[in-house]
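Researcher: Re-running this chain for the archive, since the previous output was lost when a drive failed. Same request as before.
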Amino acid sequence: MGSSVKSSSPFTTHVLNTGDGVPAVRMALSLHRLDPRTAIWNLITIGNTDEDGRCPGLITSDAFTPGMYKVRFETGQYWESLGLSSFYPYVEIVFSVSDADQSCHVPLLVSRYSFSTYRGS
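Model: Regenerated structure tokens:
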């Protein structure tokens, strides 16, 4: 069942700990949508990355509509769980969806003092 959830989710993410060259396991994250009328971010769901650094099933195709979204990664808590400190307590990636029929993959590459992201496929 896990693989069918992965393939049916229109939004996916993958977090890699580039400092150690491993998936970022058990990193907490949350997905939000901006309400254009109130300019308030509404929480859609929360989750944790799995052993592969992925967090499948964050949103259904029906709920994934055009608009502005953000995904917040709790990077500080992740590094603390490894007994390390980091410069960034969290990372928020804001992105726009114009065509909800296209899948959207937003990976995060993170180390204790840097991060990067891109639109994946």
